[in-house]
Specification:
It is a single chain. By secondary structure, this protein is an alpha/beta fold. It contains 34 helices and 17 strands. 42% of the residues are buried. One of its GO terms (cellular component) is apical plasma membrane.
Length: 1051
C-alpha cells in the first residue's frame, strides 16, 4: 500500500514503519518547503525497500510540486484522456474527486507515481487502468506501429497524394475523355468535369473536417462514417465499400486485360479467343498484384511510384503531341493541330445514338472517384489528420486541372468525324456541307461520315489520345499504368477497410479476418478474400453490368461522409471541434444530396439496389446491437431531439385523453424485485415513463461510493433485460426522506411520474416501529403529492436480493477456486464455475419461481378488478392496459363492484353502460351485495391475534395510567381507535372473505386500496388492514388513483 501525503502537512512525512521509506536528500541546495525543491521542480523521492520480491524502486507521492507544496492533484496529461481499451498507451488514473474532497485517510486506495530503476534508466510509472483489450471499446483500438521495429509509415505525398492521383487518373483519361467532349462539346464537357469535381471536392472538405476531429486509425471511409454516425451506418457502408473495392480490382484488371488482348489481336497472337484470353491475362495480372501487396506496403508504394512516373510521362506525351504539326496520316484521322475554328466548332454539344448529358456524365463520373484511396490506408499514415485533407484536396485539384487541360487540347485539335482515308483530301477553300464541313477549311472532306459511320474523330475513335500523342506506345504504357495503379490501390484498400470492420466485431462471423500479420499488421486473410472475389468477377469477363453498381457503392460512401459532417455540425456537440475549418454544414448536406442525385443519374436501378442492400445491413446491425459506443453524432442528435421534444411538451397542458401511467417503482436495485419491475414495465412498456428507484440509507460518505458505482451497472442491466426503464438512486439518512426526494424531483417537465408503485411490506409485524412508520409515511407522502399509488403483494414475497447476493458470492468463490486450480496445475479448470450457476434455485425455489411470474406469457384466465371506490379510473385503466399486452392477451377482465341489496341488476346495468362509454370490454360484471355482512369469527380472531402485539390495551387502566402509556407508546393501537374504525376494520376482513370466494383462481386480483386518514389511523392498524385485505390470495394489486379523471368518454 502506498501512502499519499496530506497537502501541506510536513508532519505526515513520517510514513508508517511497514513501508520503511527514507527520504533522499537533495544535493542542489536548501529549500524552505520540505516537499518542494525549487531547483528540481519535482516532489521529493522516497526509497521503498520493503518488498517481498526484493525489488528496488522509488516512490514519488505526487506528480508535481510546482505549486510549492505536495498534492494529489495532477497536471494535465494526455494519458489521463486515453480510452480504457487503448493499445497506443496506458490510461493513467487521475485522483478521483472523492480522494481529493473527502477527509484525508492515512491509508488510501490511490497509488502515486512509481519511479522504477533499471540500471541508469529511470522510468515513471503511473497507476493505470488495465485495458480489457476489447477493440470496439476504443478509438485507438488499432495497435500502434512502432517505427523502431521497421514499420512503414507514409507521409501525405506518398501516402495520400500519389495514391489518390493514380486512382483518379484511370483509363477514362486515355480512352473515353475525347468521346465525352465529342458528344457534349467542350462547353458542356467542362460542366461534366466541374460537376464531378464539385461532388468530390465537397466530399473532400467534409472528410477533412471529420478526420481532423480526433485520432484517425485504420479503416478509411468505414472508420470515418462509423465513428461519426455510429455502427449502424458504418457497418452497412463498410461492408459495401470493402466489397466495391474488391470488385473494382476485377474491373481495372479486366480493363488492362482488354488492352493487352487488343494488342494480341493486332499482332495475330491470340492464345484461345478474346474472352478466354481476357480471363487468362486478368488472372495472371491479379496474382502478380497480390504478390506485390502481400510483400508489404513498402513494395506496393514503390510500385505505385513507378506507375506514377509512367503515367505522368504519358500525360506529358499528349500535350507534346498536340503541339507537333500534324502529318498527313493524322490529318486524315481528324487531327489538324491547334485551330480556333475546330475549337469553336467543338463548343456545342452533338449528342448521338441516344446519348444525353446525363448518360455522358454517368460514363465519365467513375473517372473522378478514387478520392478515398489515401484515407483507406489511414492506419499506415504517419499523421493522417494532416495528410488526408492536404493530399486528397490537392489530388482533386491536380487531376481536375489535368482532365480539363487534356480534354481542351484535344477539343482544339481534333474534329468530331474523320474517315482516316488520305484520298479524301481536297483543295483548300473548298466549300463543304454538314457537320464535317469544318475539315474542308484544312484540306479534307469528311462529308461521307454524314451517311455512313466513320472510324476516326472524337466521336468514333476511342484511341484518339494514342493518335494525337507524340509517341503512341507511351499512351498504351500510360493506359497500363492507369489500370494497374487503380487495381493495386483497390487491392490494398479493400482488405484494409475490411480488416478495420472485422476488428470492431460488428459482424461477429467475420472476426476471423481481423487478424493482421507482420510489422505492418497486414490483413493477409483479407488479401486472400479480395483475391477470390476479384478472380470470380474476372472469370465472368463482362463487367458492364457490375460497373455502375461499383460507382454507386462509392457514391453511397461519399454521400454518408458528407452527411456525417452535416450531422455532427447540426448536433452541435461540444465534442465536434475539427481542426480543419474550411467546411460548411449546409454545403456538406448539399454534397450528400448531390451524391444521391448522381447515383440515380448514373443508373437508377443500381442506386435502388445500393440503397436496398444498405438498408438491410443497417437493420441487421440495429437488431444485433453491437456492444460499441463511439460517441456518434446520432447519439448527440437524439439528445438534442429529446430535449427539444421535452421542452415543447412542457408548453402543453395535460389532457385526460393523453393520460398514461408514468410509474416510479421502488425496486431497490433494478434486479432485486423482479415481479414489481416486470408488472410496472407491462403498464408502461414503450409508451410511458418507468423509473426504478433505490434509496441508499446511511451516512453519505459511506453510501455514496456504492451508489455511484451502481448507477451505470443498473441501467445496463435494464437495457440488457430489454426493460424500457430508467434507474435513479438517492442517498439519504432515512428511507422515507429519500423516497420523498424521489417523489418530488424525479422526471423532467411533463415526463414526470404520476404513479408510485411499491411492494407490500411482508415483514411489518417483526420489523421495528421506525421501519413501519417510514413505510406508511411513504404512502401518506404519495397521497400528499397527488400520486396514484399501486401496491403489489405476493405471498412468496418480492425481494430476491439475498439470493442474488448469495449467488454472486458462490460464483466468486467458484471462480477463485478454478483460478487456483489452473495456477496449480497449469491446465484448464474442470468447470466448477459453470456447475455452480444455480445456487438460488437450491436456496429458495419457490421465491425464484414466483419472481419470474410476470416475465412469461400468462395462461388463460382472468384479471379480477374489484373497483370499489371511484378514484378517477386508475383502478380500471391499469388492468385494461395489461390486457393490451401480448403476455396478458389471453386474460379476460372481470369487474366486481359493491352494490346495495335489492339493486344488483340496476347496479350491473349502470356499470355496463359506463364501461361501454369508456370502450372497455369485460367478460363479466359482478355485483357483490353482501359486503356489509360482518366477517366470520375466524377472520376476526386472526385479525385480533395479528394486532395484539401492537395494541395499547389502555381500557383496563385508570385514566392517568392510560395517558402515560399513550405518551410512552404513541405508535400503538388504542382501544378508542379500534372502536372508532371498527366498521372499516370489519370491511377489510369481509372483503378478504369475498375475494377468497370469488377470485381465488384469478391470474391477478386488483382491488381498490383503502386510505388511512393522517393523524387518525395509526400506522400499525393501517398495515393490519392491508394485510387482512390481501392475505392468502393470488398476486394482488392494491390501487388508488389521485381522484383526478384518467378516463373519459368524450372524443
Amino acid at each position: 500500500m502506498y501512502l499519499p501525503l496530506s497537502e501541506g502537512n510536513p508532519a505526515q512525512m513520517n510514513l508508517c514503519d511497514s513501508c520503511k521509506m527514507t527520504r533522499f536528500k537533495s544535493n542542489r541546495g536548501a529549500h524552505i518547503n520540505s516537499c518542494y525543491d525549487a531547483t528540481l521542480d519535482e516532489p521529493p523521492v522516497y526509497e521503498e525497500t520493503n518488498f517481498s520480491n526484493e525489488e528496488h524502486r522509488t516512490v514519488r507521492p505526487s506528480v508535481m510540486s510546482a505549486f510549492g507544496h505536495d498534492t494529489l492533484d495532477r497536471v494535465p496529461n494526455i494519458d489521463f484522456y486515453r480510452n480504457a481499451g487503448s493499445l497506443s498507451g496506458q490510461r493513467v488514473v487521475r485522483p478521483s474527486l472523492q480522494e481529493l474532497h473527502d477527509v484525508f485517510q492515512k491509508v488510501s486506495t490511490y497509488r502515486p507515481l512509481l519511479l522504477f530503476h533499471f540500471g541508469n534508466v529511470e522510468i515513471l510509472k503511473y497507476d493505470v487502468e488495465k485495458s480489457d483489450g476489447t477493440p470496439s471499446d476504443d478509438l485507438e483500438s488499432a495497435e500502434p506501429l512502432d517505427s523502431s521495429k521497421g514499420a512503414v509509415r507514409f507521409g501525405w505525398i506518398r501516402g495520400v497524394l500519389v495514391r489518390c492521383m493514380l486512382n483518379i487518373w484511370g483509363v477514362m483519361l486515355f480512352i473515353r475523355l475525347s468521346w465525352v467532349f465529342g458528344q457534349a462539346g467542350w462547353g458542356l464537357g467542362i460542366v461534366v468535369i466541374l460537376l464531378s469535381c464539385v461532388v468530390t471536392t465537397i466530399t473532400g472538405l467534409s472528410m477533412s473536417a471529420i478526420c481532423t476531429n480526433g485520432v484517425v486509425r485504420g479503416g478509411g471511409a468505414y472508420y470515418l462514417i462509423s465513428r461519426s454516425l455510429g455502427p449502424e451506418f458504418g457497418g452497412s457502408i463498410g461492408l459495401i465499400f470493402a466489397f466495391a473495392n474488391a470488385v473494382a480490382v476485377a474491373m481495372y484488371v479486366v480493363g488492362f486485360a482488354e488492352t493487352v488482348v487488343d494488342l494480341l489481336i493486332e499482332h495475330n497472337a491470340l492464345m484461345i479467343d478474346p474472352i478466354n484470353d481476357i480471363r487468362i491475362v486478368g488472372c495472371i495480372t491479379v496474382v502478380l498484384l497480390l504478390g506485390i501487396s502481400v510483400a508489404g506496403m513498402e513494395w506496393e508504394a514503390k510500385a505505385q511510384i513507378l506507375l506514377l512516373v509512367i503515367l505522368l510521362v504519358a500525360i506529358v506525351n499528349v500535350f507534346v503531341g498536340t503541339a507537333i504539326p500534324a502529318t498527313e496520316d493524322k490529318k486524315s484521322k481528324g487531327f489538324f493541330s491547334y485551330q480556333s475554328k475546330i475549337f469553336l466548332e467543338n463548343f456545342t454539344p452533338d449528342f448521338r445514338n441516344g446519348e444525353t448529358f446525363f448518360s455522358v456524365f454517368a460514363i465519365f463520373f467513375p473517372a473522378a472517384t478514387g478520392i478515398l484511396a489515401g484515407a483507406n490506408i489511414s492506419g499506415d499514415l504517419r499523421d493522417p489528420q494532416a495528410a488526408i485533407p492536404k493530399g486528397t484536396l490537392l489530388a482533386i485539384l491536380i487531376t481536375g486541372v489535368t482532365y480539363l487541360g487534356v480534354a481542351l487540347c484535344v477539343a482544339a485539335t481534333v474534329v468530331r468525324d474523320a474517315t482516316g482515308n488520305r484520298n479524301n483530301s481536297v483543295p483548300l477553300g473548298t466549300v463543304c456541307n454538314g457537320s464535317s464541313a469544318i475539315a474542308c477549311d484544312f484540306g479534307y472532306d469528311f462529308s461521307s461520315c454524314e451517311v455512313e459511320s466513320c472510324k476516326f474523330g472524337l466521336m468514333n475513335n476511342f484511341q484518339v489520345m494514342t493518335m494525337v500523342s507524340g509517341f503512341g506506345p507511351l499512351i498504351i504504357a500510360g493506359t497500363f499504368s492507369a489500370t494497374l495503379s487503380s487495381a493495386l490501390a483497390s487491392l490494398v484498400s479493400a482488405p484494409k477497410v475490411f480488416q478495420a470492420l472485422c476488428k470492431d466485431n460488428i459482424y461477429k462471423a467475420l472476426y476471423f479476418f481481423a487478424k493482421g500479420h507482420g510489422k505492418n499488421n497486414e490483413p493477409i486473410r483479407g488479401y486472400v478474400l479480395t483475391f477470390i472475389i476479384s478472380v470470380a468477377f474476372i472469370l465472368i469477363g463482362n463487367l458492364n453490368t457490375i460497373a455502375p453498381i461499383i460507382s454507386n457503392f462509392f457514391l453511397a460512401s461519399y454521400a454518408l461522409i458528407n452527411f456525417s459532417c452535416f450531422h455532427a455540425s447540426y448536433a452541435r456537440s461540444p465534442g465536434w471541434r475539427p481542426a480543419y475549418k474550411y467546411y460548411n454544414m449546409w454545403l456538406s448536406l448539399f454534397g450528400a444530396l448531390l451524391c444521391c442525385v448522381v447515383m440515380f443519374v448514373i443508373n437508377w436501378w443500381a442506386a435502388l439496389l445500393t440503397y436496398g442492400i444498405e438498408i438491410l445491413l443497417y437493420i441487421y446491425v440495429t437488431v444485433k446491437k453491437p456492444d460499441v459506443n463511439w460517441g456518434s453524432s446520432t447519439q448527440a442528435v437524439t439528445f438534442v431531439s429529446s430535449v427539444s421534444n421535452a421542452l415543447s411538451l412542457s408548453g402543453v397542458e395535460d389532457h385526460v385523453k393523453n393520460f398514461r401511467p408514468q410509474i416510479l417503482v421502488l425496486t431497490g436495485s433494478a434486479q432485486n424485485r423482479p415481479p414489481l419491475l416486470d408488472l410496472a414495465h407491462s403498464f408502461t412498456k414503450n409508451y410511458g415513463l418507468c423509473i426504478t428507484c433505490e434509496v441508499f440509507v446511511g451516512p453519505k460518505s459511506e453510501v455514496l461510493p456504492e451508489m455511484n458505482a451502481g448507477m451505470e451497472s443498473n441501467q445496463l442491466w435494464l437495457v440488457k433485460r430489454k426493460r424500457k426503464a430508467f434507474y435513479a438512486a438517492v442517498a439519504c439518512e432515512n428511507f422515507r426522506e429519500g423516497t420523498e426526494s424521489l417523489l418530488q424531483a424525479s422526471g423532467l417537465g411533463r415526463m414526470k411520474p404520476n404513479t408510485l408503485m411499491i411492494g407490500f411490506k411482508k415483514n411489518w409485524q417483526i420489523a421495528g416501529k421506525d421501519e413501519v412508520q417510514s413505510y406508511v409515511g411513504i404512502l401518506h407522502d404519495a397521497f400528499d403529492f397527488e400520486y396514484g399509488t399501486v401496491m403489489l403483494r405476493m405471498d412468496e414475497g418480492l425481494d430476491v436480493s439475498h439470493i442474488i447476493k448469495a449467488e454472486d458470492e458462490m460464483l466468486k468463490a467458484a471462480k477463485e477456486q478454478q483460478e487456483n486450480e489452473m495456477m496449480a496445475n497449469g491446465t484448464k479448470g474442470k468447470g466448477l464455475f459453470r456447475k455452480s450457476r444455480k445456487p438460488s434455485q437450491q436456496m429458495n425455489e419457490k421465491l425464484m419461481e414466483s419472481s419470474g411470474l410476470f416475465k412469461k406469457k400468462q395462461p388463460k384466465g382472468t384479471i379480477d378488478v374489484w373497483w370499489l371506490f371511484d378514484d378517477g379510473g386508475l383502478t380500471l385503466l391499469l388492468p385494461y392496459i395489461l390486457t393490451t399486452r401480448k403476455k396478458w392477451k389471453d386474460c379476460k377482465l372481470r369487474i366486481f363492484i359493491a352494490g346495495e341489496p335489492g339493486r344488483s341488476e340496476a347496479d350491473r346495468e349502470e356499470m355496463k353502460s359506463l364501461l361501454h362509454k369508456f370502450r372497455i370490454k369485460c367478460s363479466d360484471i359482478n355485483v357483490i351485495d353482501e359486503i356489509h355482512i360482518k366477517p366470520s369469527g375466524d377472520s376476526t380472531r386472526t385479525f385480533k391475534e395479528m394486532i395484539d402485539p401492537f395494541r395499547l390495551h389502555e381500557g383496563s387502566k385508570d385514566t392517568a395510567h392510560a395517558e402515560a402509556m399513550k405518551k410512552e407508546h404513541p405508535w400503538k393501537i388504542t382501544d378508542q381507535e379500534l372502536s372508532n374504525f371498527e366498521e372499516k376494520t370489519n370491511l377489510q376482513m369481509r372483503l378478504n372473505e369475498v375475494l377468497q370466494e370469488n377470485s381465488k383462481s384469478a391470474n391477478l386480483i386488483i382491488v381498490s386500496m383503502p386510505i388511512a386518514r393522517k393523524g387518525s389511523v395509526s400506522d400499525y392498524l393501517y398495515m393490519a388492514w392491508l394485510d387482512a385485505l390481501t392475505r392468502n390470495l393470488p398476486p394482488t394489486l392494491l390501487i388508488r388513483g389521485n381522484h383526478k379523471s384518467v378516463l373519459t368518454f368524450y372524443s
